Amino acid sequence: MANYAGVIVDISLEKLDRVFDYKIPAHLEEVVHPGVPVWIPFGMGNRRIKGFVVSLSDTCDYEECRVKEIIGICEGVIPVEGHLIELAAWMREKYGCTMNQAMKTVIPVKNKVKEQTKVLISLNTDKKIVENYINDNKRCKARIRVLQILTLKGTLEKEKLLEKAATTAATLKELQEAGLIILQSETIYRLPKIAREEKKNITLNKEQQTILDTFQSAYTQGICENYLIHGVTGSGKTEVYMGMLETVLKAGKQAIVLIPEIALTFQTVMRFYGRFGERVSVMHSKMSAGERYDQMERAKKGEISVMIGPRSAVFTPFSNLGMIIIDEEHEGSYKSETTPKYHAREVAKKRCEMSGASLVLGSATPSIETYFKASCGELKLLKLPNRIGDSRLAAVQVVDLRKELKEGNRSVISRTLRTQMQNALDKNQQIMLFLNRRGHTGFISCRSCGHVLKCPHCDVSLTLHRDNKMRCHYCGYEQPNVKNCPECGSPYIGGFRAGTQAIEEVVKKEFPQARILRMDMDTTRKKGSYEAILESFAKKEADILIGTQMIVKGHDFPDVTLVGVLLADLSLHTSDYMAAERTFQLLTQAVGRAGRGKVPGNAVIQTYQPEHYAVQSAASQNYESFYELEIAYRDLMSYPPMSGMLAMLLQAEDEALLETEAEKIKTSILEMEIPLLRVTGPTPAVISKLSDIYRRVIYLKHEDTKELYKVREMIDEAVKCEKIRKEIRVEFDENPLYAY
Ligand code: ADP
Ligand code: ZN
Ligand code: ZN
């Protein structure tokens, strides 16, 4: 039995971010384990506060008499499995956050949400006693009604019984006290409602079976490996995942399947349900806290064996984890945008290591980072280069928009795309039009002087809305539209209309007979509308689906034979090193939507830069050629994965102070004299001012990430001892996905 417990204090204060030793009183020896929430006396006044046990030991570094005792166990808080605490400790090191922040991340639902229960009522004694009671209490009509109903029906739910007997709970209480009925409560879990798809009888093809065999033979020998399945769209990856899941479940283990949030509520989940039924559960952000809590409880009790969910599902408290699958592993949504800025891929890898589980990553367009690791042998690369059945990859045409304009076509739809659309419509086939916009389109600019109207608080372009008002998407600032340029007075000021709504209007005009659906932030705001649009399109209630990134993720529409990418450049010119990678992924996925059924597909990519390698390799659907060029670029420029990169975001209300402090910080970093460390900035961030807070960013690069962590530690220290002014807020982000 351990005598001492290491406890972290549940207060979000930097200064308390360490482990404190407490004595375990004899009566708590059995129940104090890592992960258990406890009450402890704290500080001079021995204030009673909450903490989490993170470790146990027989000895203690302090004098016996100075170590305080744990008061008791906190009820009403979910105890965390010991290994999740270990995981939190690792996250603290890796992402440079506090233990408390890490703990809050690994325990997604912290406080117990009241369970929903139903009360079942049944008769307690044999019929004779009941009959006697009825005879003796003839005037108590309500009680008699209750007893008669129960005699007839056996057990009934409380609400139903009250309704049938037209009485109140008081009657039941009297009967209960008289010992005639028993009340039993039963927990009802709030189960997410998801339709179940019929189980298909699928025999894996040779390529799929080879991958599954590789996995199975290792798994059954107890070898846990990390895998990357690089399979083109529609190559049957999901079927392979399910085969792997079966292996893991047969071994009595549990598994987590991460899927991008956006692909969660539709086809994929139904397939898992169809195959594994009630052993599968789902988590997603639209669920209530109660629903999520219930899922966690069921996971912990072992009532489910597979949890499907987005990023945060990686923390599902399974005690016997055998595998984590990350589908579409290249997706940006796997990285957290709030501190700790963890990447689910990295956390999953760590968790698998800790539990002796296998990690399976899958994608048609693996992230450069993952593919690089696979090429170094850190992951076992498994390939599915062909689509299922006879369905072939689409024939892709790249259209040069510069030429289009020169030849007098000012429409957002090129002549090639228009012809192909007409062809598809004539044949009663479906079309998807994709606008890969990121950030802010619909902005107002002056054609004479180039001035762009921006939000005075946030330094981002204002967006023109239908009510003729311009709004800031960050802070909500609005102003009426202008007729003349505020800089030069020119009347040639207007919007660059590249929103999905604008596209819809053009398409309506050019193809008045076509039935059109649009999917973007505006049309999917309401709960369930996303699914409704996809379902409607799947049922062929529309000919054309127009949308943003949302429409290209993982949906199978066999009747779509044509995909049009309206302006590939929109994602190509975001100001960060991952722009090409992201564009390649988006284009490949968009193109992959076409021709998933029996009819071969076509795709048209419109762009002002047809010669760009991201466009070229996406058009030829050649991942390897893209990878070779991209990794060469990363190597040349020392970008991840060839070098570690750390963004340091500095924020303050006072711009002048921010500027001088940022320079000082840079100097202090340079004074560390770390060989080969590269420091750029400080520069104003892409969004240089947000809600009246100024933002500067410093980027650090080094081949060895450990050297970058040294800098982070130095800065953390400087923050703690206020060497850096406390008006300055410092945030770190390793390998940031976007420019700050
Ligand atoms: P991916 O996940 O790679 O996009 P899926 O697993 O979704 O591919 O497979 C694409 C389609 O092919 C699905 O409709 C799936 O049911 C079907 N499919 C997959 N494997 C087979 C197979 N071996 N035989 C027949 N159909 C298959
Ligand atoms: Zn102007
Ligand atoms: Zn603003």
Describe this structure as you would to a colleague.
The chain has 740 residues and is of the alpha/beta class. It has 6 domains: 4-78, PriA, 3(prime) DNA-binding domain (GIY-YIG endonuclease); 116-188, no CATH class; 206-384, P-loop containing nucleotide triphosphate hydrolases (Rossmann fold, 3-Layer(aba) Sandwich); 395-441 and 497-634, 3-Layer(aba) Sandwich (Rossmann fold), CATH 3.40.50; 442-495, no CATH class; 644-734, Alpha-Beta Plaits (2-Layer Sandwich), CATH 3.30.70. The protein is built from 22 helices and 30 strands. It has a 7-stranded parallel β-sheet, sandwiched between helices. Strand 3 and strand 4 (47-57) form a beta hairpin. Helix 19 runs antiparallel to helix 20 (623-637). It is globular. The model has no long low-confidence stretch (mean pLDDT 85). Adenosine-5'-diphosphate (ADP) binds next to helix 8.
Task: List its traits.
binds zinc ion, seven-stranded parallel beta sheet, binds adenosine-5'-diphosphate, six-stranded parallel beta sheet, 22 helices, 6 domains, Rossmann fold, 30 strands, GIY-YIG endonuclease, globular
Structure, briefly:
The protein has 740 residues and is of the alpha/beta class.
The CATH superfamily of the largest domain is identified as: P-loop containing nucleotide triphosphate hydrolases
Largest sheet: 7 strands, parallel
Q: What small molecules accompany the polymer chains?
A: adenosine-5'-diphosphate, zinc ion
Cα-atom Rg, whole angstroms? 30 Å
